[in-house]
Each structure stands twice: as structure tokens, then as C-alpha cells.
Write a structure and sequence with these properties.
Elements: H1 2-44, H2 58-68, H3 70-83, H4 85-89, E1 96-102, E2 115-124, H5 129-195, H6 201-235, H7 259-269, H8 271-292, E3 298-307, E4 310-320, H9 330-396, H10 402-437
Antiparallel strand pairs: 1-2, 2-3, 3-4
């Protein structure tokens, strides 16, 4: 009887031991399969994000914004309005027609006895004044056109910024989704180990907390995606909720410019600077006009008179103004326009200095971004990937604890997100540089 009990206990311990070993084997098999298929899953996952909507093309977005943006269209109409002014300013004032009665008798007030007179008068400014007024209006129209072009290049920059923001968000979502799947599998492995007594509950809870943080991050990214799409739609005068595809893949643009070259390009091409130059020319024309105001304007006329029933005389008229108060009027006007020229010149110099400073700052940011992209792509991310692979291998043979494995996964995830941010920030800086110099460079 005792022998039967001993044999039964032995068989029971054998069954328990077999079950324990089987559970461990199953966990190890699952871990091995998971860790082997994880890289394949990561490669295949982005396919799940493909959508029916065609991918976004940056140049098409820019073209549509240039065609439909209301602010740009408004500026274009403003330019057209300015272009209508020069011909008006270069045209003589309308002639005047005067009809009068001369020598009317005080006792009869008869319309038959007095002389009737018809006079046509024309004002004639001193030669050169009309052409200078027309030139002033023409320079203002040219300045308005340069302002329109400056709005245009800023609009292009805003479209590119919104596009790169959307590109970053889409890539961040894909990376976060991959990390979410990895963490979900980490949770399953931790729970499986904990269920058979070879894992810690702390590992399960830590993995679940990190998974919850990833889900929260995905919610935030989705909100940011909708906001970025709305901004891009508004720039193209679409409804904010209009559907939009995924941005195409971008790679780092090559930068091969010296600072002196960029400064020269900006001086020649930036509409802001060209507009200020037009305003300097406008004030110079106003200065020349102010000097001509020392000379009088003229009024000439021709009169025809009728006495009783016959037209019996023709007379001419001529008048001019006398610039008698030139000390307090014409002199002051010349001084005013001289000050305007100096002010406009200094505004031009200040704007050019600001542009040159911006170019210098952007070049420093470009160098920093280029080095970071190189560092992430050839150093940090490959090293973090290798570290994660090593942790995976160590975890399979129980040489690495779960928290170390989890930390390696989160570190790689953060570096991948940072790389995409650095890349898009780099491209945004180059878009800003194009807006600063006023010319497409890439």
C-alpha cells in the first residue's frame, strides 16, 4: 500500500515536472518564433497603412495653392489696381467749359441785350511734372508686384512646411504602430512567463504601462495629423476636412552653397528687397517733382463772344500761379522727399542685413541638421538596433532581464522618431532658405 502511494507521488511529480518543462519549452518556442518574425513584421507593417487616396505630390500642392489661395489672389488684384494708376497720373486734368453773360443792364435784366461768352479752359502743368507723377505711380505698382511675389514665396514655404509636418506625423504613426505591436507581444511573453512562475508581475505591469503610453501617443498623433491636413487644405482653399493622401517618401536634399553665393542670390532675387528698391526710385521721382514745383503751372483758354444775334469776337486767356511762398512750401516739400529717400534707403539696408543674418542662421541650422541626420542614420539607429538584437538574443537564453529588453525597444523607438523629426526639420529649414533668398534652390 505504501509502495503504491510512493509510486503515485513519483508519477505525479513526473507529470508536474513534465508540464513545467513543457510550459517553458512552449514559452521558449513562442519567444523564438516572435523574435525571428519580429523584423519581418516590421518590414511588412507599413503596407497596412496604404490607402486608396493617391499619395501627395509636393509640387502639385504648391501649384494648387498658387492657383487658389485667396490671400495670393487678393494681392494679385491689388497689383492690377496699382497698374491702372500711372496712366491716370500722366493725363491732363479735364478741360473746363464756362458760359457767361457780360454787360447785363441793371435796369432791364434782358437776356437779349448783354453779351454771351463761351470759354474753354485747360490746365497745363509745368513740363515734366506729369511724367514724374506717372513714374511715381509706376514705381508704386512695381513695388506692389514685388510684394505680391513675396507673398507667393512665403505661401510656397508654408505649403512645404505643412507637407513636411504631415510627412513626419505619418512616419511617426507608422513607427509608433510598429512599437505598439512589439509591446503587445512583449506583454504576451511577460504574461506567459508570469503564468508559469518564471517571470515577474513587475515585468507585465511595466510592459502594460508602456503599451498604454504608446496608445496615448497614437491618439495625439492622429489629432496632429488631422490638424496638419486641415492647414494644408486651407492653404489650397479647400475645405479643412477634405480627404488627403499620404506624403511621398523624401530624402535629404543636397546643400552645396556658400554664404556669399546665397547673399548674392538674395540681393538679386528677393522680392522684398526689389520692392524697397522700387520705393527708393519712387521717392527720387517725388524729389524731382518737388523741385519742379518751384515752377508755375498754367491755365490757357479760348473764348468766343456773341452780342445780340451774331458771333462777333474771339479772345484768348492765359494764367499761371506764382510760387510766392516757396520758403514754407516748396522748400519744405523738397526737404520732405529727401528725408523719404534716406528713410527708404535705410529700410532697404536694414532688410538686407536681416536677410543676411537669417541666411547665416539657417546655414548653421543646416550644418547641424546634416550632421545629426548622418549621425542618426549611420551611428545611433544602427547601434540601437544592434543593441536591441543583442538584448533579444540574451533574453531568449535568460541572460537579459525583461526590463532591459523593454528599455532597448523604447530607446530604438525614440531614436527612430527623432530621426524623422530631424529630417523634416532639415527640409523645412531649406524651404525657409528658399523663401529668404527668393529663389528655388533644391
Amino acid at each position: 500500500m505504501a509502495r503504491i502511494k510512493i509510486e503515485s507521488k513519483t508519477k505525479l511529480f513526473t507529470i508536474i515536472n513534465y508540464s513545467w518543462n513543457s510550459s517553458i519549452c512552449v514559452i521558449r518556442v513562442l519567444s523564438f518564433v516572435f523574435f525571428c518574425l519580429l523584423p519581418i513584421a516590421y518590414c511588412l507593417l507599413p503596407v497596412a497603412f496604404a490607402e486608396d487616396i493617391p499619395p501627395l505630390d509636393l509640387q502639385q500642392l504648391v501649384d494648387e495653392a498658387l492657383k487658389n489661395n485667396p490671400e495670393l489672389i487678393s494681392a494679385k488684384y491689388r497689383v492690377e489696381a496699382f497698374k491702372e494708376v500711372p496712366s491716370q497720373m500722366g493725363t491732363l486734368d479735364d478741360p473746363k467749359l464756362e458760359i457767361g453773360l457780360l454787360r447785363v443792364p441793371m435796369n432791364t435784366l434782358s437776356a437779349k441785350e448783354p453779351m454771351k461768352e463761351i470759354t474753354v479752359m485747360q490746365s497745363l502743368p509745368y513740363p515734366g511734372k506729369l511724367s514724374l507723377k506717372s513714374e511715381m505711380a509706376q514705381k508704386e505698382a512695381e513695388a506692389a508686384e514685388e510684394e505680391y511675389k513675396d507673398i507667393e514665396i512665403k505661401l510656397i514655404q508654408m505649403v512645404k512646411d505643412s507637407y513636411y509636418d504631415l510627412y513626419f506625423i505619418y512616419n511617426a504613426i507608422e513607427i509608433t504602430e510598429r512599437n505598439k505591436l512589439a509591446l503587445q507581444d512583449f506583454v504576451k511573453i511577460a504574461e506567459a512567463k508570469y503564468s508559469v512562475g518564471i517571470g515577474l508581475q513587475q515585468d507585465v505591469l511595466k510592459a502594460q504601462v508602456e503599451l498604454s503610453k504608446i496608445i496615448d501617443e497614437l491618439i495625439k498623433l492622429e489629432r496632429e495629423r488631422q490638424s496638419a491636413e486641415a492647414r494644408l487644405n486651407i492653404l489650397m482653399n479647400r475645405l479643412p476636412q477634405s480627404p488627403m493622401g499620404k506624403p511621398k517618401y523624401i530624402k535629404r536634399s543636397e546643400f552645396k552653397f556658400a554664404i556669399e553665393e546665397l547673399q548674392s542670390i538674395a540681393t538679386e532675387n528677393r522680392p522684398l528687397l526689389r520692392g524697397l528698391q522700387r520705393m527708393i526710385e519712387r521717392y527720387r521721382a517725388a524729389y524731382n517733382l518737388a523741385k519742379l514745383e518751384y515752377y508755375p503751372n498754367f491755365d490757357v483758354g479760348l473764348s468766343a463772344g456773341q452780342e445780340r444775334d451774331s458771333m462777333n469776337y474771339v479772345s484768348g486767356k492765359f494764367s499761371l500761379n506764382i510760387p510766392l511762398w516757396y520758403k514754407t512750401k516748396q522748400d519744405r516739400k523738397v526737404a520732405e522727399e529727401s528725408h523719404n529717400i534716406n528713410s527708404a534707403t535705410q529700410r532697404y539696408n536694414a532688410a538686407k542685413n536681416e536677410i543676411f543674418l537669417k541666411i547665416k542662421d539657417i546655414m548653421a541650422e543646416e550644418e547641424k541638421g546634416r550632421k545629426l541626420i548622418e549621425l542618426f542614420s549611420t551611428g545611433i539607429i544602427p547601434q540601437a538596433t544592434q543593441s536591441l538584437s543583442s538584448a533579444l538574443a540574451g533574453y531568449q537564453v535568460n541572460k537579459i532581464d525583461f526590463l532591459t529588453l523593454l528599455d532597448n525597444q523604447i530607446t530604438l523607438f525614440n531614436y527612430q522618431i527623432q530621426y524623422e523629426k530631424v529630417l523634416t526639420d532639415y527640409e523645412k529649414k531649406l524651404a525657409e532658405l528658399e523663401a529668404v533668398v527668393g529663389k528655388r534652390l533644391f
